[in-house]
Amino acid sequence: MNYRACYILLGIACLLVSCGGELGSVPPPSYKNRAKVVTAVVAQATARVAPSNNSSNSSNSSQSNNSQSINVKAELWADNWFALYLDDQLIKEDSVPITTERSFNAETVTFPASYPMHFNVILKDYIQNNTGLEYIGTNRQQIGNGGFIGQFTNADTGEMIGVTNEWWKCTVIHTAPLNNACAAEANPVAGQGACGFTSIPEPTDWKLPTFDTNSWLAASLYSAAQVSPKEGYDTIAWKPEAKFIWGPDLKTNNTVLCSVTVFKP
Question: pLDDT tens, 213-252?
Fold first, then answer.
């Protein structure tokens, strides 16, 4: 009986020692509130990576990522206007004002950043007023369309960091007109008849990494044929993984906010 009791006690002690590490472990922090991109995904933009794989970095890895700054080269084109932010820091605003009727141009900017990189953009299509129309009162009166494309590379090595694709999360804060028949109105008036519109302010602190974008939609993707990019677009050698993004309606979504987080591979 004494031997059996000893074996039982020894077995219990072994179980406690082998399980102790797991019982005391703490799961790593998760960036669950942000859209996530891993650089490896860029090579195949259509490939999906489970969110848990993107966010399960150890604390040591996160500290290493944050401590190393690299030079990022951003190449961007918008119809008609954009502002790029790293977190809430303005990196580049379209040099052609949104009040310019035909503002088509590409922009390139280089800036320091460290992983994880939280990119935010404000995107605007030119509209003459809240009708959502352009060329009002002429025989060209119409609803315009938007479109934005961008790619981010390591300025020193040329290594791809990220592109605009379906990993970006977006929300629309201005839509007009609410009825496409507005474009045929002889005297279109914002907020009347077919020319209704919706407009809401930017969410508070939406550019911060802690902002919850779970309710935002994945960016809608568009082809070059749908956007019809003009001046400046062909001056950049676009990677095939870079896609045009916008809200779900390329024509009536006039102001769109988009956000993404890029983690170090």
Answer: 999 999 999 999 999 998 899 999 999 999 999 999 999 9
Q: What's the rounded mean pLDDT across residues 42-67?
A: 36
Comparing CA positions, the residue from 164, 165, 150, 145 lying closest to residue 228 is 145
Instruction: Enumerate residues 6+ apart whose C-beta is below 8 A from 143.
Output: 132, 133, 134, 177, 180, 182, 183, 251, 252
Name the nearest CA neighbour of 217 among 263, 173, 154, 157. Answer: 173
Q: Where are the strands (E) in 79-194, listed by range?
A: 81-86, 89-93, 105-114, 117-124, 133-134, 142-143, 148-154, 160-163, 169-175
DSSP state of 214: T
Q: Which domains does the chain have, with CATH numbers?
A: 31-39+72-122+145-174+202-249 (2.60.120)
By the 8 A CB rule, do 110 and 156 touch?
no
Q: Is the pLDDT of residue 184 over 70?
A: yes
d(CA 84, CA 258): 10
Asked if omega into 116 is within 30° of 0 (cis), the reply is yes
- DSSP class of 187: S
For the chain, how big is the Rg over CA atoms in Å?
Answer: 25
pLDDT at 125 over 50: yes
Residue 97 has pLDDT above 70, yes or no: yes
User: Residue type at 218?
Assistant: A
The per-residue pLDDT for 102 is 67
